[in-house]
User: Fold L-seryl-tRNA(Sec) selenium transferase from Streptomyces sedi.
Amino acid sequence: MTDARRRVPRTDMLLRDPRLAAAERTLGPTLIRRAVTEAQERVRAGELPPERAAEAAVAALPRSATTLRPVVNATGVLVHTNLGRAPLSPAAVEALLVASGTTDIEFDLTSTAARRARRGRGALAALAEAVPRAEAVHVVNNNAAALALVATALAGGREIVVSRGELVEIGDGFRLPELLESTGARLVEVGTTNRTHLADYARAIGPATGCVLKIHPSNFTTTGFVSSVPIAQLAGLDVPLIHDIGSGLLSPHPALPAEPDASTSLADGADLVTASGDKLLGGPQAGLLLGRRDLVERLRTHPLARALRVDKLTLAALEATLLGPQPPTRQALLTPTAALATRAATLVDRLTAGGVDADAHASEARIGGGGAPEVVLTSAAVALPAALAAPLRAGRPAVVGRLHGDRLLLDLRTVPEGEDTTLLAAILAAATPPAATEPTP
Ligand SMILES: *Cc1c(COP(=O)(O)O)cnc(C)c1O
Assistant:
């Protein structure tokens, strides 16, 4: 045994360090032991003197028990799937905390006999209230789950009629037609890539038809010699008409005139609308189902519904998103560009005073995976040297922007105003490499 190995401090001795003992109360034993083991390995490898093992373990402790790191989304992409889509409103965050303990999710506290109550009734009522056109509503894990449930319950072993122009790949190789077929439903494709007519649908409908599905192409547009059939016309066909609107707008939005919304779609004659909760609605990941009572009831009572049901955290955050203040994604849609330019100028002043090479830059923000691929939102950015991209990504919070030539643009449309101070501190920290500090003995 080498000298270093013999001198590796014992685990129980290291765990007696008061800093590690205190951290164990918040982080739990697994993460503390991991940090201790790593420090011991470093001593064993001769990288660390044994007397510094406890200190190294303390320094290596994670700040929280999740490996997820907070990120400032300065990409200018409002709904960024890789960054977790919609950030929740403060009211939704508060609701998560309330629901995180034991709660009356399925329990009637008003009845003297402890009785069972409808699961998530508050969230369902808020959703129904937001879309009065919907006779009934149901919530599942995400929009993909909503579509899987529709296909299974309404078209299992039967046919779904869908336009060839709407066979969409959403992202990460996820293709809606493959999802639909995985349920055992058969797709009957009608029309061509660029043009589909009402007669194409009418010809395809027969005794085996389970439903007609219209899918919003949320991440591409087609222009030129194109045509598709609007919901109002499809509503004349005598089969259930399902509309996947994708983005989750519940009513028309002034900034997104071409984006479909649930209220209009139902008014135009859709029998059922499916949508995501974490795109333009600005809430938690969820799949929203709204429409005809008999169809919603068939979905809700189908055995598969149990496998797709949402947890109490989702229901709490969804209700607060619907009833509470505008979530950040919705605010980002409406913030005047002049206000963003003012914030960019203020940040640039502070950064310049701090010796950072920064200037204000006009920018263009996008909706992203959430829909409206053609929409450009004018915006304002702080431009920094591209070399800061890596240190900003490595910071806490991490800051993710967009490279533009030799500059890194931090687009402020996707940064809530309240995060400017955090952003400023993160940039200053990234631009000022930490001085090589002597470890305290
Ligand atoms: C995003 C999207 C989906 C998938 O929704 P998830 O909530 O991510 O499962 C399905 N259809 C359309 C049109 C979409 O835009």
